[in-house]
Recover the amino acids of this structure.
């Protein structure tokens, strides 16, 4: 059976979002180096089946354990994932890190097209801090995150600074940026 998803377009759209949103707006002040050095692994999964998604996650984890040349990885879920279902998948992946005792080496970040923070309205522009073109599970090396934190004054302020930045940018400008990204896939 032929794939109905164009992996190249999914990858192009994901990279455009990282470059034109995450890095360009400095949403994550540590994202630039690994992206520019091409040290990110991408795995695209086009199924909603939990066991296959988990298998892909474990393969990414294994690749990162085997190679220090991979700074971080994205498991991109290329089919539409309900946000609640996605959170269940994400939490299962976090549980697997703990069960495998790799949670001291790796941590996860969560991105989804319909991401919504607790205590924020669905249309609050601050939700876009974690809204991506596709559902993604981001696997990061704890050591690299800790090194980046050392070079940054107060990382606890980043989420609120990003919320302020997006609100100041405004919905019209943000939508223009996101529209330019969506034209890549």
């Amino acid at each position: 059976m032929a794939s109905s998803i164009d992996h190249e377009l999914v990858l192009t759209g994901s990279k455009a979002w990282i470059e034109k949103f995450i890095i360009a707006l400095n949403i994550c002040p540590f994202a630039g180096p690994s992206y520019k050095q091409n040290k990110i692994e991408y795995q695209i999964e086009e199924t909603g089946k939990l066991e296959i998604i988990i298998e892909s996650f474990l393969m990414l984890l294994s690749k990162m354990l085997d190679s220090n040349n991979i700074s971080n990885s994205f498991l991109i879920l290329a089919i539409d994932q309900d946000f609640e279902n996605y959170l269940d998948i994400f939490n299962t992946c976090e549980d697997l890190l703990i069960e495998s005792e790799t949670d001291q080496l790796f941590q996860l970040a969560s991105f989804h097209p319909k991401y919504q923070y607790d205590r924020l309205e669905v249309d609050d522009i601050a939700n876009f801090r974690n809204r991506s073109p596709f559902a993604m599970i981001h696997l990061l090396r704890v050591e690299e995150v800790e090194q980046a934190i050392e070079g940054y004054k107060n990382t606890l302020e980043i989420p609120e600074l990003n919320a302020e930045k997006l609100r100041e940018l405004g919905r019209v400008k943000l939508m223009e940026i996101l529209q330019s990204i969506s034209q890549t896939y």
Observations:
- The chain is about 50% helix and 15% strand.
